[in-house]
Amino acid sequence: MPEEDRTTLCLSSQVGCALDCRFCFTALLGAKRNLTAGEIIGQVLAVAAGQNIARGSRLNLVFMGMGEPLLNLPQVMKAVGILADPKGVGVTLRHITVSTVGILPRIEELARDPMRPKLAISLNASNDEQRSALMPINKKYPLADLLEVCRAYPLRPWEHLTFEYVLLQGFNDSDADARRVAGLLHDLRAKVNLIPYNSGPELPFRAPPFERTVAFQTILTDSRIPTFIRISRGQDIAAACGQLSLEGLNAKSPWEREEADSE
């Protein structure tokens, strides 16, 4: 995702995902496998080479592609260590973010790691009923428990927690939702990224009108919560946020074809 003063790379930690979030196209794949640290780093090196991104350029790395990074935490952290090492890729921890739906024991484990990147939480709802309908993991780790862990998270002086909120028209985008989100986050050093939904034919959700997104943002900023609207990138090739999947769900993946050929 190139911008005027920086480039952001969205990294996958797994192939597919086991968490079955109802609005996510990757969830339609189910869980396939974890990526190795080498495969994670390879994404960065391949894109940097393909896009002529010079070493030392302003580069942000976000683990927000396929998969739940905290369900592959050992390999993700091994990759982060190499990516952040000045003798490796040389991207500072300030510019690496790991996003999670909220696997609470793994968040607590990440908190103890001195080489931890920044943390982002996929919130996407303003109450437990809503969130459980969208994200089954909420039944195991409900909002009250998630926010308690977030309050205990040891933020560095320069750091905020990021909360990602995918806006779904008529489901979680009302003024009342925005006020509830403000209430949930009022005592956290946090910022919010609003992501208008990237739709597709397989799932029923749609993005709200832009005016509704701005109204939601205004309520949060009036509550002194820094809130940013993330403009969609990659929709033209079905590669925008939440859209990463296989073209044709019945198509065998490359490693499945290799296994079949070897039998």
- Seen as an oligomer or otherwise, the chain set is single chain
Q: What is the helix tally?
A: 8
Helix content: 25-40%
Shape: globular
Give the termini distance in whole angstroms.
40 Å
Gyration radius (Cα, Å) is 18 Å
Mean pLDDT over all positions? 87
Please name the defining characteristics of this protein:
7-stranded parallel sheet; about 30% helix; about 260 residues
Describe the structure.
By secondary structure, the protein is an alpha/beta fold. The protein contains 8 helices and 9 strands. The chain has helices at 37-50, 73-84, 104-111, 128-134, 143-152, 175-185, 210-222, 254-262; strands spanning 7-10, 14-16, 31-34, 59-63, 96-100, 118-122, 161-167, 190-196, 227-229. The strands form 2 sheets. A 7-stranded parallel β-sheet has the order 1-4-5-6-7-8-9, covered by helices on one side. The chain has a two-stranded antiparallel sheet with strand order 2-3. Helix 7 (210-222) links the parallel strand 8 and strand 9. Helix 6 (175-185) packs parallel to helix 7 (210-222). The chain starts with 6 loop residues before the first strand and ends with a helix. The model is unreliable at 233-263 (pLDDT under 50).
